[in-house]
């Protein structure tokens, strides 16, 4: 995965300009209509699989339905011999503002651990064709992790990357602690994960750093699940939903 600071607006532009094409494209693949994503083939040779996350009111928060549809669209492009690469993008305001906090708010440790919560997100990183994230706006939490699962990130002027889970009383659960460390180095990754502070495209590019990916993802998933056993995780997400400041008790 590498950060490239380019004008993601170029990739986004035609999706704003061609609503008719996009609505027709929802029917791409045998699976029928998608609710949370727009899908089409683009390029002179129609060989680029284009997926746009489409929950604008929720800043493309990655609800379960969206991630399932994303997996289906990736499966379809993987199987399509005419497709050479895939682009995943959002809007100018948000690539994705993270996993859906409203969906997670009342989850228990047992549900997370027993159901291996978020395990299916990994599909993005196992696609054998090159996957490009075209990022503008918020790429936070699971949104940052989704971008980092892609092979290349093209980041626009308004891109903001961050892992703000600590502000919700939890930790990144989809590879953030591992991939961010490899993308920007341990020091900046720790600062971002421990403070929730964001970086822009320039800062991400300047900090680009590569290490090999190891078993850490598995450990991270277990630690992420275990935050669902704490009162503070519940309080953090409830406070977000109720639009108030979290009252953490350190338990
Ligand atoms: N989940 C669910 N809904 C979300 C969301 C999320 N991650 N992020 C934003 N939204 C919703 C808001 O609730 C709001 O909806 P309503 O109008 O219905 O209340 C709408 O999107 C717009 O959001 P804001 O009004 O908050 O917009 P803003 O411009 O004031 O702030 C923001 C934008 C800074 C991105 C802010 O929305 C925010 O902090 N979002 C949460 C970011 C976050 O914590 N992400 C990590 C999630 S946990 C995770 O991802 C775990 C993991 O590792 C997989």
UniProtKB/TrEMBL annotation:
It catalyses: (3S)-hydroxyhexanoyl-CoA = (2E)-hexenoyl-CoA + H2O; a (3S)-3-hydroxyacyl-CoA = a (2E)-enoyl-CoA + H2O; (3E)-hexenoyl-CoA = (2E)-hexenoyl-CoA; 2-methylpropenoyl-CoA + H2O = (S)-3-hydroxyisobutanoyl-CoA. Pathway: Lipid metabolism; fatty acid beta-oxidation. Its EC number is 4.2.1.17, 5.3.3.8. GO terms for biological process: fatty acid beta-oxidation. It comes from the Eukaryota. GO terms for molecular function: delta(3)-delta(2)-enoyl-CoA isomerase activity; enoyl-CoA hydratase activity. Transmembrane segments: none annotated. GO terms for cellular component: mitochondrial matrix. The keyword Acetylation applies. Keywords: Acetylation, Fatty acid metabolism, Isomerase, Lipid metabolism, Lyase, Mitochondrion, Transit peptide. It is found in: Mitochondrion matrix. PANTHER family: ENOYL-COA HYDRATASE, MITOCHONDRIAL, ENOYL-COA HYDRATASE-RELATED. Homohexamer; dimer of trimers. Belongs to the enoyl-CoA hydratase/isomerase family. This is Enoyl-CoA hydratase, mitochondrial. It comes from Xiphophorus couchianus (Monterrey platyfish).
